[in-house]
Amino acid sequence: MNGECKLDYREADITHAERLKEEANVHFSAKRYADAIDFYSKAIAMCESSSTKPHNFAAYYANRSFAHSKTEAYGYALADATKAIQLDPKYLKGYYRRATAYMSLGKFKEALKDYEVVVKALPNDKDANRKYTECNKLVKRLAFEKAISVEDTKSVSEQIDIESMNIENDYSGPCLTDGKVTLEFMKELIKTYREQGKLHKKYAYKILLDVKKYLEKQPTLVHINIKSDEKFTVCGDIHGQFYDLLNIFELNGLPSDTNPYLFNGDFVDRGSFSVECIFTLFGFKLLFPDKFFMSRGNHESVTMNRMYGFEGEVKSKYSVEMANLFTEVYNWLPLAHCINRRVLVMHGGLFSKDNVTLKDIENIYRNRQPPEEGLMCDMLWSDPQDAPGRSPSKRGVGVQFGPDVTKSFVELNNLDYIIRSHEVKAKGYEEAHDSKCITVFSAPNYCDTMGNKGAFITLEGKCLKPKFTTYTAVSHPPVKPLMYANSLVNLFC
C-alpha cells in the first residue's frame, strides 16, 4: 500500500511538472521569456527532487536553454543544452540549442560540431542542412581571413584617400564646412536620416578618420568634471534604434556645451538603423569633444558586429572597407568615465578579482578586440547579482558580482556609486546593491519584442543624485531588427 502511495505521488509530481512546462511554453510563445524561465525552472526542480523522471526530461532543459538565449543569457543556455544532451545523447534538439548558444558567443567551430551531429542523424532535414551549411561557410570564411591577414600591412585608415572621392551633383544631403562638423550639419544629418536618406561616403569617412584621430589621444579612463549647477545625462544601450535616439534628444535636448551627454556603449547591432545611430553620435563627439562622451560596449567588437547586423549594415550602405575602419575606431573608444571622481561609468560591470583600482583601469591596453577574460572583458560583459560574492556569468563571458563586491570596490576607490548598462530592464533602469550599482538601458521595446521602457539618467554636479527619465518606444520605418544580421542569427532566433 505504501509503495502504491509513493508511486501515486511520483506520478502526481510528473503530471504537475508537465503542467508547469506547458505553462512555460505558453509564456515563451507570448515572448514572456523571464516568466517562461521561471516555470521551466519550477518544473525542472520538481522533476529533480523525484526519483522518477519524465521520459522527455531532456526537453525541459532544452526549452529553458532557448528561453535563456532569448534573454541573452548564453552561458546559462549553453549549460542547459549540455545538460539536455547528457540526459539524452540522442535528443537532437539539445544539439540545436547548444549550437545556438555557441553561435551567440562567437564559438563557431563548436557550433558547427553540434550542427554536424544533427545533419548526420537527419540527412534529409532541410532546416538542419541549411544551418550546418551557413555555419560551415562562416567557419571557412574566418579561417580564410586569418590565413591571408598579415601583421605588418597598413591599417585601413592609412589607405583611405578622401580627396579622390567626388561629391555627385545630385547629392542633397548634409555637407561638412571646411571639413568640419557644425551644428547646422548635425541638424541636417538628423533630418536626412529621419527621412531615410544617406550621408555621402566622403563625409562618412572623414568623420570616422577624425574621430579615430581624437580617440587615439584619449585615456582608457576619462575623467569628467561637472560644475555644481550643471546637468549631465547618461544614456545606456541604443542598439541601432535611431528613432528612439532622436526621442531622447526630443525629451532632453540636443547635445551642446551646456547639455553634455555620455552614451555608455552598445550603440549598434540588432537594430537596423545602426549606421544612422553611430554617425549621429560620432558627429556630436566631434562637435562637442569636451561635452559629449562615448564608452565602448561589448557590441563594439568584430564578433558581435559580424553576428548581429552592424557589419552587414555597413557593407550594405557603404563598403567592406568602411566596416573594417569601424573596427579600428571602436578599438580606441574609452572603456570607462569617472564623473567628478565620485561616479564610475562603464558598460558591463565589476571584476572577477578584488582590489581593482581606478589606476588599474587607466593602465588597461584597449586598442584591441575584447579578450575573453581579464579586466577589459569584465568591464564590457559583467552583470550584477543579488547574492553576495561572484558567480559564473549567465552570458558565458565575464562574471556576476554581488553587493559585497560593489561595496568593496566603491569604498576602495572613494566612489559614491557605479553606473552600468548592458542589460534590458523593464523600467529602463534598476537600482541595485543598496543603490551603489545602477543600470540604465536606453533602447525601449528592445528588438521590437521585449516591451521594456527606455531610460536615461540626469545628474547635477553638486550632489550627483541620479534622476531617472523613462519613455516608451516610438514608431520607425518598416525595417525589422536584425535585418542585416548573419543569416544564422535569423535562422535560430
TrEMBL record:
GO MF assignments: metal ion binding; protein serine/threonine phosphatase activity
Lineage top rank: taxon: Eukaryota
EC numbers for this chain: 3.1.3.16
SMART domains per UniProt: PP2Ac, TPR
Class of the enzyme per the UniProt entry, highest EC level: hydrolase
TPR repeats: 92-125
InterPro entries recorded: Calcineurin-like_PHP, Metallo-depent_PP-like, PP5_C, PPP_dom, PPP_phosphatase, Ser/Thr-sp_prot-phosphatase, TPR-like_helical_dom_sf, TPR_2
Cofactor(s) required, per the database record: Mn(2+)
Domain Serine/threonine specific protein phosphatases, chain residue ranges per copy: 199-475
Family of the protein in this entry: Belongs to the PPP phosphatase family. PP-5 (PP-T) subfamily.
Name by which UniProt lists this protein: protein-serine/threonine phosphatase
Organism: Aphis craccivora
Lineage: Eukaryota, Metazoa, Ecdysozoa, Arthropoda, Hexapoda
